[in-house]
Amino acid sequence: MTVTGKLCLIQRGSIPDKIGDMSWILSLDISRNQLSGELPTSLSKLNFLSHLNVSYNNFSGEIPLSTQLQSMEASSFIGNQLCGPPLPKDAEMKIITQKVEMQVEEKRAKKKTSTGFDWE
């Protein structure tokens, strides 16, 4: 069975621990919200997860250990107070964060110059 569509989650608060019961999730992007707390260890149960982005929230603590989560890009976790693999050490993380922020600014500048407006 294949499930497609959008999953509507809360934009504030924490990720419910029951998210690990949703084994059908292939992609989860909850970036740029006001979510906080620790990432639930149940995320490690999402064996088919191929894309995860929790960047720019208020998460803290260690990233749960699992092959799936450790194989994600470090940029998927920036903008939080998270630690552990796949995040590099502090100095390397600052460089990655700066590069991502520069890319976002470049995209924003392109949008603004092509339309004359900044829609974000």
From TrEMBL:
UniProt-listed Gene3D superfamilies: Ribonuclease Inhibitor
Regions crossing the membrane: none
Record bears the keyword Transmembrane helix: yes
Membrane topology of the entry: Single-pass type I membrane protein
Localization annotation: Membrane
Top-rank taxon: Eukaryota
Originating organism: Parasponia andersonii (Sponia andersonii)
Entry keywords, A to Z: Glycoprotein, Membrane, Receptor, Signal, Transmembrane, Transmembrane helix
Protein name: LRR domain containing protein
One term under GO cellular component: membrane
Stored Pfam families: LRR_1
Major localization listed first in the record, in broad terms: membrane
